[in-house]
Amino acid sequence: MITMNKIFQHYAPEYIERFGDHMPFEHRNVIDAIINCRTPSCGTMIYQCQQCGHTHIVYRSCGNRHCPTCQHHKSHQWLTKQVDRQLPGHHFMITFTVPHQLRRFIRTHQRPCYAALFTASSETIKKLVHDKKYIGGDLPGFFGVLHTWGRQLTYHPHIHYVVPGGALSTKDNRWHPSRIDFFLPVKAMSTIFKATFRDEMRKSNLDSDIPEEVWDQDWVVNCQAVGTGTHSIEYLAPYVFKVAISNSRIIKVEDGKVWFRYKKPHSNRWRTMAVDVMEFMRRFLQHVLPTGFMKVRYYGFLA
After folding, report:
1. Alpha carbon of 175 to those of 86, 136, 153, 228: distances in Å?
2. 28-31-37-41 Cα dihedral, nearest 10 degrees
3. Distances (CA, A) of 129 to 49, 132, 162, 200
4. How far apart are CA 136 and CA 175, in angstroms?
5. How far is Cα 30 from Cα 67, in angstroms, rounded to an integer?
6. Could you write out the DSSP letters of every residue in 127-190?
7. Reported pTM
């Protein structure tokens, strides 16, 4: 089976020789972690059968959050915990995206821009939930997951939120429910999201580097009723600890190219794509998050 571990072991020296002078240190750390995963470099555990006395040697995993080998079981643990603590009743999934002209800028300034995405999107929900025309509560509860990749490993930063359909009010101590099929207006969310993100960029003195055309267009926000929270949580669970591509999607490495499977949006049919191995590694590494950055965040009464 072809894995990221084997690809990095074989091709990382060439990749580092080509791009090492301009490589972020986080990328180098991820390469080293994946190469050493489940090897003696990560340590060894020794088990002995109490009945027959046979000894088993197991090499430890690297534990890096970008390693495809290490994250699978964490998704199941997180899913179980979130399903147990979800509220009864209807839920919504709200997705905040940015114009494609902004993606290159965000990739170059990941830490301040990712933080601004969370701030702008979460404040948008809080502000509109407070409006009596929609919910009329001042204490919503929701959580969001930052997702940076498309199905072909392209760079596409956006945030998914799972939101219970309503909010608490600290004024009357009551739960204010939303409609089952409507939570908040997407046009209003788009306007506030864009304006708040721009304010965050001004605070960081980065707004002058952003193309003006970004502010002249509508930003896409999607709000979808998903029924109970379990459905939306199960959808998001793989993204919480998932990396840009799993080992199971990699088909082969041949003639200097990596072949992998993907699905187009709204399609269940698997397709195959081949890219140069250096390009494949670049696409994978561009989704490495800044050190210590939290890509799952909880707000309101779910915090």
Report:
1. 15, 9, 41, 17
2. -50
3. 58, 8, 14, 21
4. 9
5. 8
6. HHHHSTTTT--SB-EEEEEEEEE-TTS-EEEEEEEEEESEEEETTTTEEEE--SS--S-HHHHH
7. 0.89
Distances (CA, A) of 4 to 37, 189, 240: 10, 39, 19
Sheet of 257-263: strands edge to edge?
250-254, 257-263, 270-276
Which residues contact residue 253 at a Cβ distance below 8 angstroms, ignoring those fewer than 6 apart? 2, 7, 10, 259, 277
Residues 79-118 have pLDDT tens digits of 777 777 777 788 899 999 999 999 999 999 999 999 999 9
Buried b (16+ CB within 10 A) or exposed e, 236-257: bbebbbbbbbbbebbeebeeee
Dihedral angle sign, alpha carbons of residues 229, 231, 232, 237: positive
Q: How far apart are CA 265 and CA 156, in angstroms?
A: 14
Residues paired with 299 in a beta bridge: 142
- Rounded to whole angstroms, how far apart are CA atoms 34 and 298? 29
How far out from the chain centre does Cα 241 lie? 8
pLDDT tens per residue across span 114-162? 999 999 999 999 999 999 999 999 999 999 999 999 889 999 999 999 8
Total Cβ atoms within 10 A of residue 292: 7
